């Protein structure tokens, strides 16, 4: 908060007194020449799995202490236009230097130097310039806002890294000092002079912030390296750094810097002198030289940072490090060959190099360091930005508004984490002969692609780029450069992706033809927008400030704002030191070529869309007329902004004129200006609310506005104006609704009318009501299964209902269980069993509809904790999967619930359906431990060749445990894989039947390790013969992982299982053949019930016959009839209920959860003899049990022989299916 307040105060002081009272950051902008996006260790080199790589340790640390801008773009893929856009704050659709205009004079207008100087900064540029112009150097940096210049003026001169030995002019200000620079290597010269300038400035004016641009001429060819003056076995750079070490400025002719000694161009970095590639061959000399040049920059940057630290300036100095374009492949020095960027992949993970508009040519290696300003160091921002954004950014940090002439937006919110980051324009147009290099690393369709006229623009995360443009109708290639930075997949025509027309419209709306550069799309007419609704006029905002230039007003607060029909300067709030901005749409009556004219007493900038239309700012003479040149426009409404400033006491004037098709030169009439606006408000519409039901003796809130409407919502939101009173109650307005209360004990019909308004018009409607006796809500019994010593929530309201309100049913209270506690939390009941308790429990709860209440019951079963993983997969619906004890394993399971081997199972589609179980929920057997995994499988015949039904462990040798199936010789069989080894069975599984499968991992030779050859497979309880072993060497050594999957593999989704899976188990021991055979023959549903109620997972016949609660029902009958093993149940037996003299109904409990394992049969006998019982055939109706949760009632109607004295006996036979 302190920093934000300081910036605001600095802005006021600058404009009010031209002095800044708050500390503002010093700013250093470091620009390299042809440094590729892959030339930094942290961005690419460190990740290369080859010996052909080099480090940049200091720049890596720079990035860790600051921020990486991972989607920062240069304006053009070559030197001069890229630098011109940087200094002017304008992209290549507006800059006066484009294409390959080396040494062309930079436009005499606002520059980084001039705006920072105006903001109160000391300014310098040290290094390469290349924008000086012809005779007399009119574009000299000291003529473009920089207080001091030191370096190469001419573009080509900077290719000679020893200016004296190369015979190339090198300037200190306007003086050529080449003759004094013996053995001075350019990188060292630039570093030393930068340090010296900072030191001198701090000594002479320590309270003035400074701005310096450091433009290294490396690693551009020629491939020259430093002298060997300080060459040791570990370094070629002077030791130390800062004030007392590193490269030092001496200033003596012939000995200007401390590295101007030894033999020039021999100081290859010792790390690279004997470097070899992966085959043992020595690096070629050009590679050693390139790596050395980059390493020298790395050392130089650190040397500058150490200087800042020594001067106590480091904390509040912002440093930007970047490059002017992508990696080069140009000539070396003397007999050294041209640099080959493929040797180190200097283009990084992208395609393209210098002069390409592919990402490798324009996405720059950009780092920003500002210890006191970047609040989240060691981070990266993928927000797209471009060089022209730095002018707006530095102005923002310096406390001045950016010139309106600039195309950029401030990146300060990205850097500081404060404020909202706006989206800017990322655009380039460029023309050059030749083609993209034919590098194998590049996508085949780009190799040798002709360049010529090229263009790209970003729309969101999408980039449209086109090469060899013949006309504006040529299509763009469209890429999602966030997820496809190598630009491999053209998304043209895909849903959700900007269209060809979107990109073609966008490029025309951001640029201007001119500056002596012809483009094939210059004459294409700029398309309008289709805003709706609109009304005549413009929006104005007035500002009270003294501005040094026409600003981007967005960073200021308006003193006045509103609507106006034309450019009305009387909307100002005072006469002097003011600014006004007008925005809206210009309605172009017909398509054609237009020309615009402007004259004003002050200064002004006009933009149409995002394109500059008229510049009447930096070089403008008050009262003169400037024009736009010819502008091709389509008919329609085009966004327009006119920014105007006035400072002195002269009269105020601002006139904008046009001429075009059938229009002679004239002031633009007010009728052609539009702004966003709405037509006259439409009237509201009130609709009747019919048959509103309400119980007697209750009140109800009726949202009558819910079905009323007002099409435009104007002039204000709908509200209730008045009510006529009903005959049998009262009605009042309450919180934009109507509360109706019937008279006491009244039942019948009632009605009233109400009137609504939108603030201008009204309408009325009628509400009719039916007041009825209230019914209590129905509370349906619930069942809760959980394991001991855990808590679990149950939504008891989910199966409760209420037919007539008046309010939604809600929990009122909960009773006290015998063996735990139950509390209401967020509309559900949380049950916690007593410590270590297993067995049955129950409690009641009460629900209310606001008028009446009902009581429900919850039966609870607290299960023991199993000593192995057992997943019955009997939920039957939803996405949750629990183990046999009710413990939740996953709530994101996918697949379809279908009948299983017994009860339910999950069927998977082989694509993205699976069950994920995290290690926090369950940790399977790891390492070399023995184990047994079993399941019931019913695989689809069309599943993948190799499909995984259970897998866990990392994808390393021996560490991934994958139970799979494989299509082998036309049959699907078992396969176990542990990464780098496998074992395959032989029994066919894809016959449309369920099969019990088991894999037993056992240390058969007791040597402490397990090979896959020791693993046994079983199918349907029978040992499966092995058809193939992988012959791999790794032992089974399963590693830990965050996720175990059923029907999928954590390392890849292409191996997902297709088919049914039921009753998955993982035992932490190796089961023997007898146990596997028994397991294949058991019924898991009944076993699960037995375990939940007794803790025994493998009950015998004797176990099922036990009756510990002495209620006459064995455990088996308790299971079948819905009883409990630890509490007597005397109401579970079947009942015969006479219906009339000739018929009766037999009612009995049914457990549908094990219907596939238990059979229910009504039998009849006349004499009770054992052989007299016969199955009774009839229609069986099944309905939900009203009292026992999870159970059903079976009802069978029988006919009675009332005319015969013969006795009839009926019984319910419950047995195995």
Task: Outline the fold blueprint.
Layout: H1 2-17, E1 26-32, H2 57-64, E2 67-69, E3 72-73, H3 79-88, H4 112-118, E4 122-128, E5 148-152, H5 163-166, E6 171-172, E7 175-176, H6 186-204, E8 210-215, E9 249-252, E10 255-257, H7 270-273, H8 285-310, E11 317-323, H9 359-362, E12 366-369, E13 379-381, E14 385-386, H10 389-398, H11 412-416, E15 427-435, E16 450-459, E17 462-466, E18 477-480, H12 500-510, E19 534-536, E20 538-544, E21 560-564, E22 578-588, E23 592-600, E24 603-608, E25 611-616, E26 625-633, E27 636-646, E28 654-660, E29 663-667, E30 673-676, E31 689-695, E32 700-702, E33 719-723, E34 729-734, E35 737-742, E36 748-757, E37 762-772, E38 782-787, E39 792-794, E40 810-814, E41 820-825, E42 828-833, E43 839-848, E44 853-863, E45 869-871, E46 881-882, E47 888-890, E48 896-899, E49 904-909, E50 915-918, E51 931-939, E52 946-952, E53 961-968, E54 971-977, E55 982-984, E56 995-1001, E57 1015-1019, E58 1022-1024, E59 1028-1029, E60 1043-1046, E61 1058-1067, H13 1073-1081, H14 1084-1094, H15 1101-1104, H16 1115-1121, E62 1135-1140, E63 1143-1150, E64 1158-1165, ...
Parallel strand pairs: 1-8, 1-11, 2-13, 3-14, 4-5, 4-8, 31-37, 38-44
Antiparallel strand pairs: 2-12, 5-6, 6-7, 9-10, 11-12, 15-16, 16-17, 17-18, 19-30, 20-21, 20-22, 22-27, 22-30, 23-26, 23-28, 24-25, 24-27, 28-29, 32-35, 33-36, 34-35, 36-37, 39-42, 40-43, 41-42, 43-44, 45-61, 46-47, 48-49, 49-61, 50-60, 51-56, 51-61, 52-53, 52-60, 53-54, 54-55, 55-59, 56-57, 57-58, ...
Helix pairs in contact: 2-8, 6-8
């Amino acid at each position: 908060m302190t920093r934000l307040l300081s910036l605001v105060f600095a802005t006021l002081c600058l404009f009010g007194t031209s002095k800044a009272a708050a500390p503002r950051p010093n700013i250093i902008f470091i620009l390299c020449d042809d440094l590729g996006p892959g030339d930094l260790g942290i961005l690419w080199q460190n990740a290369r799995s080859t010996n052909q790589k080099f480090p940049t340790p200091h720049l890596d640390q720079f990035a860790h202490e600051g921020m990486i801008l991972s989607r920062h773009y240069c304006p053009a893929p070559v030197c001069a236009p890229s630098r011109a856009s940087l200094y002017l704050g304008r992209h290549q659709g507006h800059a006066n230097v484009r294409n390959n205009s080396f040494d062309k004079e930079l436009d005499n207008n606002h520059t980084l130097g001039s705006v920072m100087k105006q903001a109160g900064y000391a300014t310098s540029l040290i290094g390469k310039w290349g924008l000086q112009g012809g005779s007399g150097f009119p574009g000299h940096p000291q003529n473009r806002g920089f207080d001091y210049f030191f370096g190469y003026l001419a573009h080509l001169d900077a290719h000679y890294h020893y200016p004296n030995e190369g015979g190339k002019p090198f300037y200190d200000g306007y003086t050529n000092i080449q003759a004094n620079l013996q053995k001075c290597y350019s990188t060292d010269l630039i570093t030393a002079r930068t340090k010296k300038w900072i030191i001198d400035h701090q000594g002479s004016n320590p309270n003035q912030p400074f701005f310096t641009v450091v433009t290294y001429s490396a690693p551009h060819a020629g491939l020259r390296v430093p002298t060997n003056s300080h060459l040791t076995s570990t370094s070629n750079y002077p030791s130390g750094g800062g004030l007392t070490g590193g490269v030092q400025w001496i200033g003596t002719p012939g000995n200007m810097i401390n590295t101007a000694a030894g033999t020039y161009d021999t100081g290859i970095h010792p790390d690279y002198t004997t470097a070899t590639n992966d085959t043992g061959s020595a690096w070629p000399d050009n590679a050693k030289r390139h790596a050395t040049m980059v390493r020298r920059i790395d050392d130089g940057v650190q040397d500058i940072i150490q200087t800042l630290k020594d001067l106590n300036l480091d904390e509040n100095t912002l440093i930007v490090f970047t490059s002017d374009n992508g990696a080069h492949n140009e000539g070396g020095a003397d007999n050294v060959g041209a640099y080959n960027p493929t040797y180190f992949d200097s283009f990084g993970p992208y395609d393209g190099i210098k002069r390409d508009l592919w990402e490798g040519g324009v996405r720059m290696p950009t780092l920003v360091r500002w210890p006191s300003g970047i609040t989240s160091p060691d981070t990266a921002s993928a927000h797209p930005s471009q060089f022209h954004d730095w002018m707006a950014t530095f102005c923002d940090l310096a406390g001045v508004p950016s010139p309106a002439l600039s195309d950029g937006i401030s990146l300060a919110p990205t850097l500081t984490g404060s404020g909202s980051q706006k989206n800017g324009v990322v655009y380039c147009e460029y023309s050059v002969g030749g083609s993209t290099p034919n590098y194998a690393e590049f996508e085949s369709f780009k190799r040798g692609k002709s360049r010529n006229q090229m263009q790209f623009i970003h729309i969101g995360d999408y980039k449209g780029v086109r090469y060899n443009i013949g006309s504006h109708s040529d299509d763009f290639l469209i890429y999602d450069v966030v997820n496809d930075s190598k630009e491999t997949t053209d998304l043209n025509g895909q849903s959700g992706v900007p269209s060809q027309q979107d990109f073609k419209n966008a490029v025309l709306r951001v640029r201007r033809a001119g500056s002596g550069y012809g483009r094939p799309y210059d004459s294409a007419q700029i398309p309008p927008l289709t805003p709706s609704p609109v009304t005549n006029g413009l929006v104005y905002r007035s500002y009270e400030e003294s501005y040094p230039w026409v600003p981007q007003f967005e960073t200021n607060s308006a003193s006045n704002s509103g609507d106006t029909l034309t450019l009305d300067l009387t909307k100002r709030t005072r006469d002097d030191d003011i600014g006004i901005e007008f925005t809206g749409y210009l309605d172009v009556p017909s398509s054609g070529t237009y020309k615009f004219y402007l004259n004003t007493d002050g200064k002004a900038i006009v933009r149409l869309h995002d394109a500059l239309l008229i510049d009447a700012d930096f070089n403008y003479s008050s009262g003169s007329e400037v024009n736009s040149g010819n502008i091709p426009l389509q008919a329609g409404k085009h966004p327009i902004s006119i920014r105007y400033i006035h400072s002195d006491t002269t009269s105020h004037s601002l006139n904008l004129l046009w001429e075009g098709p059938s229009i002679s030169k004239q002031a633009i009439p007010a009728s052609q200006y539009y702004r966003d606006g709405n037509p006259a408000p439409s009237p509201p519409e009130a609709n009747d609310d019919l048959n509103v039901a309400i119980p007697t003796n209750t009140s109800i809130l009726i949202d009558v506005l819910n079905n009323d409407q007002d099409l435009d919502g104007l002039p204000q939101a709908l509200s209730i104006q008045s009510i006529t009173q009903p005959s049998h109650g009262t009605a009042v307005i309450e919180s934009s609704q109507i509360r109706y209360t019937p008279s006491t004990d009244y039942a019948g019909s009632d009605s009233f009318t109400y009137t609504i308004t939108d603030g201008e018009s009204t309408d009325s409607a009628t509400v009719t009501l039916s007041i009825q006796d209230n019914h209590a809500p129905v509370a349906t019994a619930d069942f809760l299964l959980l394991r001991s010593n855990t808590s679990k929530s149950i939504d008891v309201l989910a199966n409760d209902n209420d037919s007539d309100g008046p309010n939604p049913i809600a929990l009122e209270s909960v009773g006290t269980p015998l063996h735990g506690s139950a509390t209401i939390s967020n509309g559900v009941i949380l049950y916690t069993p007593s410590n270590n308790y297993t067995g049955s429990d129950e409690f009641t709860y009460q629900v209310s509809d606001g008028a009446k209440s009902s009581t429900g019951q919850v039966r609870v079963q607290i299960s023991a904790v199993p000593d192995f993983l057992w997943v019955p997969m009997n939920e039957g619906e939803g996405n949750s999967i629990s183990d046999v004890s009710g413990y939740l394993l996953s709530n994101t399971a996918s697949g379809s619930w279908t009948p299983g081997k017994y009860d339910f199972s999950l069927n998977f589609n082989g694509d993205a359906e699976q069950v994920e179980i995290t290690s926090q929920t369950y940790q399977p057997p790891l390492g070399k431990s023995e184990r047994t995994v079993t399941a019931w499988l019913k695989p689809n015949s069309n599943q993948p060749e190799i499909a995984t039904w259970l897998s866990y462990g990392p994808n390393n040798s021996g560490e991934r445990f994958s139970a799979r199936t494989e299509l082998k010789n036309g049959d699907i069989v078992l396969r176990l894989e542990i990464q780098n080894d496998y074992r395959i069975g032989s029994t066919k599984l894809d016959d449309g039947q369920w099969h019990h499968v088991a894999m037993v991992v056992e240390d058969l030779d007791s040597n402490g390790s397990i090979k896959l050859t020791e693993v046994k497979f079983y199918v349907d309880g029978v040992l499966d013969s092995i058809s193939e072993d992988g012959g791999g060497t790794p032992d089974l050594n399963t590693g830990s992982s965050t996720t175990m999957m059923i029907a999928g593999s954590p390392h890849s989704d292409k191996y997902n299982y297709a088919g049914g899976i039921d009753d998955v188990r993982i035992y932490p021991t190796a089961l023997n053949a007898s146990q596997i055979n028994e397991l294949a023959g058991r019924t898991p549903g009944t076993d699960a019930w037995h375990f939940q109620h007794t803790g025994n997972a493998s009950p015998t016949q004797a176990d099922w016959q036990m009756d510990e609660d002495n209620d006459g029902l064995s455990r088996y009958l308790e299971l079948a009839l819905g009883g409990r093993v630890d509490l007597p149940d005397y109401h579970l037996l079947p009942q015969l209920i006479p219906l009339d003299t000739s018929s009766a109904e037999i009612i009995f409990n049914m457990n549908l959860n094990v219907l596939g394992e238990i059979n229910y049969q009504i039998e009849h006998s006349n004499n009770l003899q054992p052989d007299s019982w016969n199955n009774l055939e009839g229609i069986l109706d099944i309905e939900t049990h009203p009292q026992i949760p999870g159970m059903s009632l079976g009802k069978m109607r029988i006919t009675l022989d009332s005319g015969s004295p013969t006795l009839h006996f009926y019984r319910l036979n419950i047995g195995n299916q």
